[in-house]
Task: structure prediction
Amino acid sequence: MSLPFFNSPSLRCVHALPGEAAPGNLLGRIEFGLGLPEPTDPRHVVVGLGALGELPTEHWLSDLPVRHGVDDGFGWAENGEVLFGNIFVPESELIDLERATRKLYVRIEQMLQRFGYPHYLRMWNFLAQINAGDGDHERYRLFSAGRNRALALKPNFEQALPAATAIGTLEPGLVVYFLAGKQPGLPVENPRQVSAFHYPRQYGPKSPSFARATLIGSGRQARLLVSGTASVVGHESRHAGDPLRQLDETLANVDALLAHTLATHFPGAQASTRPESLKLYLRDPAQLPLLEARLAALRGPQQVPLLCLQGDVCRHDLLLELEAIYAIDAAPSASRNG
Result:
């Protein structure tokens, strides 16, 4: 099935400096920083993460006409093919975090059904104090349990999970924003890692519910939306306390995911990948200088945009997480399996 979403008239992502207008019709605008004013446009999102270096603003754009508004507390924008939605939940409503998350994800599902965009493509979740609490009372585990119980209301939900990110913010509350489509993307897993939704019990009463990536588009419009990826092999964290080795392991995971995507979904095609957008979340900003040479190489000769942000990763022993968008350069006649 051809899904011509990303880098097509219906959806593309660009970066601009704060206050700089981005070309095209706006679906979503995400600003990262501390102490930012509350947005008044329903398409704008503010995420309380510290800025490390230059901090472009992320824009999701469409060349098609866009409608936008507010529905049940969600800001939304849609163009007939994709929908961008967002919501902020204040800390006062997160006292029972598992229950609040379950209710929120049920509301998201209801919204997508009302608007006619039933297919998740990409999710972002930013939760204050994500590592606070012991054992199964850790906030990330409570969030994961609530999300799982909401998504599991749909039959065979594990077969249609989106790429996702979950990061701890430096300001209170929960920010969620997402992309959904009229047509589904294709979930992709990583052969180096146990699927997150099959993690063993030691990681909580309910496993995290996301795919390692979502593949959208076909031919020269194919894009891989890569989930937040960390130094996890199988299901175990690797290289505790060593940010450089964790980054290398993370990059090995991304490389394996890209190779698996090409081999599985573009067999026999002359296909290659190239990054278009990169985002690094780092627990300790003092460790950034140790990583700069590796990150410069990752950006390549075109110096692909890289946002470096201070935020907590979902496991105590993980120091960093990387998310990305990769273009897949394939001949127009290349078919995609799936």
About this structure: The radius of gyration is 19 Å. Residues 1-7 have pLDDT under 50 and may be disordered. The chain has four helices and 19 strands.
